[in-house]
Amino acid sequence: MQHRTLGQSGPSVSALGLGCMGMSGNMYGPADRAESIATIHAAREAGVTLLDTGDFYTMGHNEMLVGEALRGIPRDSVQLSVKFGALRDPAGNWIGYDARPAAVKNFLAHTLQRLGVDYIDIYRPARLDPAVPIEETVGAIAEMVRAGYVRHIGLSEVGAETIRRAAATHPICDLQIEYSLISRGIEESILPTCRELGIGVTAYGVLSRGLISGHWQPGSAQADDFRSHSPRFQAGNVERNLQLVEALRRVAEAKGASVAQIAIAWVAAQGLDIVPLVGARRRDRLAEALGALDVTLEQADLAAIEAAVPKGAAAGERYAAAQMAHLDSER
């Protein structure tokens, strides 16, 4: 397994991380508990050390699942990245966000209990709380760093100005944000700011929720699946986006790789300061994703990929309008 260091202040992690959100609930279709745990075990056996979760993923279920899967595994052999702050009601509805200092410590206490660990490697607010200055949120996590409950501080889906303010409060190891062939907005100001400040990037959505995986078929999303209301999967958009996938498939076939492997390898090739997170929920999808690490993209390959999927070619935004309005990274 290759390794990359998250920023100037962060840990050394596997060059590919495992995003565990889809292993709980039905956001990307029904999850299978036994297969999810088997996938985490397979990831560990393959050398994957970075596991990403959130305390609001099915109201704590995901943390408990990850904790169960890691039981008996040496604590220092994995890096746990945890997001916090989103509020949900008993029906699972999203009802707000809370990143006040007291809430930070409260959320962390529950996370440690559910995961069954005594510290979190990277702790990050999932979004910017508009009611709380980022300095207060980061300052509260910094107190937990000094107390030994957190090793490193990360951010998620915030813009360049917020990144600067956070980094002035405490060293930030990485920014978690969507980045893929069809989501390249960070290239304008966010990625340059991270590089100026020595902050790494953990890229999620590298396959755009399966859209550019080469496996997606129209009409396969269930009613409660995120993709059933995601703009890029809607009629009029999805057809255009799948044309991009077919163009990418021709590049992948010429390279002897799958579409997903080319898409993941492209993200990894954008810099050693970027670690792709893959949301594999099954061992076969994990094995395919890991194969991306064996794909070397030369300049000619990158040019062919760019021609197949030009920047800005995707139809539809990455989230619905209401969700986009809450993203500091999109302002």
UniProtKB/TrEMBL annotation:
Question: Which GO MF terms does the UniProt record name?
Answer: oxidoreductase activity
Highest taxon of source? Bacteria
> Sorted alphabetically, which InterPro entries does this protein's record hold?
Aldo-Keto_reductase, NAD(P)_OxRdtase_dom_sf, NADP_OxRdtase_dom
SUPFAM superfamilies for this protein: NAD(P)-linked oxidoreductase
Q: Name one Pfam family in it.
A: Aldo_ket_red
What are the residue boundaries of the NADP-dependent oxidoreductase domain, all occurrences included?
16-308
The alphabetized UniProt keywords are: Oxidoreductase
Q: Name one GO cellular component term.
A: cytoplasm
Q: Which PANTHER family match?
A: AFLATOXIN B1 ALDEHYDE REDUCTASE, ALDO-KETO REDUCTASE YAKC [NADP(+)]
**What is this protein identified as?**
Aldo/keto reductase
Organism listed in the record: Teichococcus wenyumeiae
